[in-house]
Amino acid sequence: MALGFEHHDHSDCISSTLARAEAHCAKAGLNFTPVRRRALEILLQEHRALGAYDLLGHLAQAGLGKQPPVAYRALDFLVSSGFAHKIEGLNAYIACAHLGQDHTPAFLICRICNAVAEADAELANGRLGDAARAVGFIIERTVVEAEGLCPSCQNAT
Predict the structure, then answer these.
(1) CATH fold label, 10-95
(2) 21-29: which pairs have CB atoms within 8 A and are 24 or more residues apart?
(3) How many CB atoms lie within 10 A of CB 81?
(4) pLDDT digits (tens, 9 = 90+) for 14-56
(5) Where are the domains of the chain?
(6) How confident is the model at residue 2 (pLDDT cuts 50, 70, 90)?
(7) pLDDT tens-digit profile of 80-122?
(8) Under CATH, to which class is 105-156 assigned?
């Protein structure tokens, strides 16, 4: 199921995801600093892909730093911890919709509003996996990004 375009309780989404992130960090001995926490909260609030400089603007407004390394370090932590994903085609980041779950994400990106839905795409078990196995290739990482129109932008056009 793709998560990101459906209507939901946004405040519950944010608070429950932050709680899961805090619990994961406590259990794993990771330092979930105020900057890292706020960066994840911003990504969750926006519900769309944000570039590092967009994130930096939000962090600066919160008094958490104005220099680019502040945003990049926070994003590196969030991605490496599985709390966020980099959308390669947009050079931007989104909060993980399946935080705490082992999954292979595929991203559905609206070309008008940059909203991103995250779907689970078990590519290694599908045709791509079959093709790789046929030639003796081992897939270690995949990035799937599909561009189109989200339901809101479809209805607006």
Answers:
(1) Arc Repressor Mutant, subunit A (1.10.10)
(2) 21/81, 21/83, 21/99, 24/81, 24/99, 24/100, 25/81
(3) 18
(4) 888 899 999 999 999 999 999 999 999 999 988 788 999 999 9
(5) 10-95, 105-156
(6) very low
(7) 999 999 999 899 999 988 776 677 788 899 888 888 888 877 7
(8) alpha beta
